Each structure stands twice: as C-alpha cells, then as structure tokens.
Amino acid sequence: MSTRTVRFCAAALALLMLCGACSRKKTARDGSSAGMTAEEIMALRNPVQPDMIVDGVAYVRKTGVRTVLFMGIDKKGDLESVTKAVGGQSDVLILVVVDADARKQTMLQIDRDTITEVEILDSRGNPTGIRQEQQICLSHTYGQGDEKSCENTVRTVSELLLGIPVDGYVALLYDAVPGLNDAVGGVEVKITDDLTAADPSLVQGETVTLKGSQALTFVRGRSRVADGTNVNRMGRQRTYMSALGSKVRAMMKTDSSVLNDLYYTAEPYMVTDMTLSELTSVAAEGAGYTDAGIVTISGEHTRKVYPNGNTYVEFHADGNSILENVLALFYEPIG
C-alpha cells in the first residue's frame, strides 16, 4: 500500500470517528462523503475499472478461476517408444475451468479443426517467426512432442480465447486411454453410433461398460465409424469425459487415492507442466463443485481441397460464440 493511500485511509477513518452515530447514513445530497463508511469512500475514490465492455455492458475478469488444458495427442506408444520426428496432432482439446467463486467446474471443448493463427516452430521447437492460418491441432505437431510442442498449443488456445491465460496443461498420448479407463473399473456409456466396423461389440443403441481398447475406439475412432466426421467424434468424447468424470467424482468420496492411481497410470504417456500435488489440488477442488458439463464453440465446417488432391476439414469458429463463452466463463458484469 502506498504512503498516499495510507494517509487517505487514516483521514477517512478519522472522519468516521468524528461522525459517530451518523457514520452509516447515506451520501449527502451535495455529493460529499459525509456519513459514508470507509469502504464506500474507498469505492468512490477507486472505482472498479472494466476489463472489457461489450454492447454497453462493463465486465471485469473473475479472480477465482483456474484453467488446465487437456490435450489428447494422436501418436501411438508411450514417451519412451514414440518417434520424436514430429509432435503429433492434438486431436482432443478440452480446457477445464474451475471457478472457485461460483463453485463450479466447466469444460470447454475446442474443435481440433478450428482454423486459427498458429506459430511455426522448427524441429527442435524453436520459434521461426512465421505464423500461419491452419488447424489448431497442428500447433502441437511442431517440435518433438515435448514441452515446447505443448506450450505452442497453449499459446494458440489462449490467443483463440481472446488472451485468457492457461494455468497448466496435461498432454496424453492416446495409448494412455485403455489403462486410465480400466483404472476406474471401466466407463459405462450408451453407444449412439454404429461402431461395429471398428469393434463388433460396440452395437448402436446398447449401453456398454467400456474395457481396455474399447475405450480408445470410442473416443478416437473416426475414419471407419459413424459418419467419419470430427463433429461426431467430439460428441463421443464429451459422452466419455462426462461419464469418466462422474465415476471419478464418486470414487473420490470414499477413496482419494484414485487421483494418485490415475496419475501414475498416465505418467508414461504424459507431458505436463504440473506436479502431482497441483493436479490433485485442481481435481479435488473441482470434484467438490457443481459439474457444469461440457460447452463448445459454434461455427461452420467446410472442406478444402489442396493442390495435391488431399481434402481437409476446416472449422471456422464464430467470433460471437467465442466471445460469449469467454464472458460466461471468465468475466462478470460490473454492477
């Protein structure tokens, strides 16, 4: 606190003492501070400055929010066996948002085909000074799949979300899924798509407790299942994440060690900038809050044909939808 502020607070408190019983009266009609509490005086002298104004409404950033970016990396094997030639695409991007003030946890799922500006890194993860519009999943391919690849994805996601900071990240190779799934005794889901081309036991309309590789087929399968689109796969990923989250929450009520078990099961496939205690803290905090579910950003999917004949899907996020999600998760209106 500055000397000037200390002097002001002392003067304000002295004024209140002189006012005696009148200290809790409303502001005088002439606009003076007579009859105001110290808090009211400070509020008038130091009004809250908005961080953003949208359609005439002023917003300030929430202070009790923590975020963790979860990345599912499309590379087989574990960290010891996987090739380091490229980082691998981040096929799953889910930002976990834990709001301590609202006591709720929300997950924001980002389409891996979202077109946005991505920083280009060389094979060792060093910046090249080049930025290109491309699918957001490619932000992780640069580098060797290590911390630099993850940090590039974190920066890209933060920029997409209007500069919202990402407090930590967890990147998992896809082969971690079977072990994590079985560590909680399997995850029960309803099979809403025809997945029999990939696994005959995953029949549309049936409710199945996924075991081992079935879980990986459910969250990863695309080219040979359902309509082959990422939109469809994202829906299955939401279904799985919700069911897994509910099961872990239930298990934590009687056995907090489940978080340690999951961490050590994932460790051979995981790159993260968070310690076990940090991850446990966020998970435990979120488990005690209301589960607000998984939200997504709306937009338009298109197909682009490249000169080599390959066709790629592009997702063009709606700017208003990005803003609405950012405001809902990270800001609150003033007044």
Care to give the gist of this entry?
The protein is of the alpha+beta class and 335 residues long.
What does this structure look like?
By secondary structure, the protein is an alpha+beta fold. The chain has two domains: 3-47, no CATH class; 60-333, 3-Layer(aba) Sandwich (Aminopeptidase), CATH 3.40.630.190. It contains nine helices and 15 strands. It has helices at residues 3-19, 38-45, 147-160, 177-183, 213-220, 230-252, 258-266, 276-287, 319-330; strands at 52-54, 57-61, 65-73, 90-99, 104-109, 115-121, 127-135, 168-173, 187-190, 207-210, 270-272, 290-296, 299-305, 311-317, 331-333. Strands 11-8-3-4-5-12 form a six-stranded mixed sheet, with helices on both faces. Strands 1-2-15 form a three-stranded antiparallel sheet. Strands 6-7 form a two-stranded antiparallel ribbon. The longest helix has 23 residues, at 230-252.
Ranges with pLDDT <50 over ≥5 residues? 1-31
Radius of gyration: 25 Å
- What is the strand tally? 15
Structural class: alpha+beta
CATH class bucket of the largest domain: Alpha Beta
**So what's the oligomer here?**
single chain
The profile of the biggest β sheet is: 6 strands, mixed
CATH architecture of the largest domain: 3-Layer(aba) Sandwich
The H/E string reads HHEEEEEEEHEHEEHHHEHEEEHE
